Amino acid sequence: MRTVVTRSPVFALALSLVLVGTGCEPSSTASVSLRNLAPATPEDVGMSSERLTLLHDAMQGLVDEGRLAGITTMIARSGRIADFQTYGFRDMAAGDSMTEDAIFRIFSMSKPITGVALMMLHEEGKFRLSDPVRRYIPELADMMVAASWGPDGPVLEDADRPMTIRDLMTHTAGLAYGIGDPHPADRLYARSGVLDMSGTLEDMIDKLAGLPLRFQPGTQWSYSISVDVQGYLVEVLSGQPFDEFLQERVFDPLGMEDTGFHVPAESHGRFAQVYFYDDEGNLTPPPESDNAIVSMQFLEPATFFSGGGGLVSTTMDYMRFCQMLLNGGELDGVRLLSPTTVDMIRTNHLPREMGEYAPGQGFGLDFSVVLDPVEAGSVSGGEYFWGGAAGTWFWIDPVEDLIFVGMIQQFGGRVPDVRSLSRQLTYAAITESRGQNHE
Questions:
Q1: DSSP sequence for 216-251
Q2: What is the pTM of this model?
Q3: Share of the chain above pLDDT 70, in %
């Protein structure tokens, strides 16, 4: 089933915020100028309601075909919510329909939030991007590089230079991940229990200190545990536990009421079920697993505050985070970052000699950045985005002044390419391009 939301409770809340903030009757001009996610019709923001039904029908089709259990999609343009839809089920076995306020495992969509937290400390002069990590985390001062791998393990050599904080934020530090990748370094991470969810970030650092780097810092791009290291760096620089910093400095100011490192007991009924595929391609709950991601339950308070993949959130919460960025660091009168810092975040920071990490894509500070939309299979240069292991996805397009947030909870190799499909159908619904007003 699909729920078509036109004036939902979430929309009503956004509208009430407009009234409180202005002290007057809402108007189209006031809503646009505030850019605070007030409700709008697609036509109000240069999109077509009729054409958006193609997006709705495509998402509903994936549910009807049994390829996904439930989906939410949200589009904001010109700072206003133009479309918010729910499809299918939050929990198939219980017969619970997907809802606007469903809570999702966002996994690696935690990474941009961690990057923003770290850059807030950058604005306070706590560090420079070129600073060596060892200045703040001395346990990582003497890490060696695995020049090759022999039958008895890594053949080590000295690092040519220390890893920097910029390296951490661009996945070029030489760290591995320990999840899924068959590389010897990742297998070593897995055996060492670097991502032990029953431990702490400090435990992780102690284990990392005894492991080799996968490559010389700054020479390759490799998806890694580096954002979890950034979470620990936030603790060191701020003097606060990472979860407390995020709550006090990011979530509370932005009104992200359901984002955190676990789902509280009173909200368990809103937590979306995650699914796998069985051998016949049917949706099934997750099996028992030793996999660090699959085994994450999120129902009890965490001790390991994973900046790389430990957060849960809602569609609206994550949209508020994205709109803050598209607004240049501010939402509802609360400023987290300077516009110049947001520009730094969405600028490609990969070394010139490294080139692109994927066709048409560079890497900013914990975001992928579109350099060539043709090569990247996108629309606008300067778009920045990321996704999560269970299928959640978002993108921010400064050229078209548009944000898309999508949520599913699905693992497995048969997950449909919902990200590309949603992008194609969203841009097809634009009737007034903003592109001619931007470089």
A1: -TTS-----THHHHHHHHHHHHHSS-HHHHHIIIII
A2: 0.91
A3: 90
